[in-house]
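2 proteins. here.
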Amino acid sequence: MALALFQRAGTPVPPSGAPGSDGLDGPASDAALIEGSLADPDGFAGLFDRHADEIHRYAARRLDDASTADDVTAETFLVAFRKRARYDLSRADARPWLYGIASNLISGHRRAETRRLKALARSFRHAPEQAAGFEERSAERVTADRLRPALAAALARLSSAERDLLLLVAWAELTYEEAAEALGIPVGTVRSRLSRTRTKIRRFLDSLEPHA
């Protein structure tokens, strides 16, 4: 499926295992693949093969629409291909860069994502067990395969910047440093924004607890 996505977007993809995809000491780093693709554009397929499925899963989770996720994934790698000459080759792992591109593209579907969250939230009925123990789990562990209505309601209340950051950490499992790179913000901003986001979600879920 991954190769078909990129081909649909109009970029030629060579067979997997094309020359130059592996180094003598093991697989080439993402940075090496990108650098090599400057002279041999077909080599960029190695980066696609390595990360497309992961980016697609993230987009599908955010948008809950496989077709739109297909488009976002294909466009992510098209944008990356076009901008590869500006990639910082000192960064061996290109995942944060790719997630940053994907997040920007997902922002074009923000209304659809928000509508989905609100629709899930409307199905919410007072269920304190969903909030119980949330403080121990922390907001970063919003990783159920399907958003529970209570958490959907909480996410719908976040700003787009807060939601992007939270889900890059929770679903894409980026470190704070990687999330900062993906979003183009300082690590300190990541820490403070996540702290505020955790507080917002915790307060909302705490409000669902029955009070004596």
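next one coming up
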Amino acid sequence: MMKTKYKTIAIDGPAGSGKSTIANELAKRHGYLYLDTGVMYRAVTWAVLENNIPVVDEDAVTVVAQEISLKILAPTVDDGREYTVMVADADVTWLIRQENVNANVALVSSYRQVRYFLTEKQRQIAHGIPIIMVGRDIGTVVLPDADLKIFLEASPEVRAERRYKQNIKHGKSITFEESLAGIIERDKQDREKQIGAMIQAEDAVIIDTNDLTIEEVLTKIDRL
């Protein structure tokens, strides 16, 4: 079985490539902890806003990232969550999805020292447990020695269609054209970031998900 072969799995790829869906399902099937590293930046952003710290104050935000008591756990409540996010004693799993966090997390995640401290926390979480970690620089920066590195890719049009359907399902009003424009802009930002840019590891297994179902992608990974 896959879980006996690999202790740490890094999954990278652009927005809409299926990283979270695939990683979450793999974790359920094979007993891994699933960690979307983006939630850690969201948790720091939430803590900054909760304590009325200006997000433009890089030094103050960095202190929060350094000192935050943050835990990512397997789901503790059956409410559709993929994991439980705890800041100190507070369950912030859904709070970090609020619009004020959405509007500020990009700035918080752009701070060099914030990324440094959270990268260290991510490595600590991964130490000693079977884990599937998802992001854009996991295989190159966070876990460069991961046992298995996967890079999921798909065309902007396919990814935009996925996001469009996802948004419609959740009652959000958006056109396919708007979804595509958003994907293209996000790709540009992710590749041009000075810190935390999306990079494909040289030793990553590349899986093109354009014409594959979720089950077909999972089967490909199970065979690695």
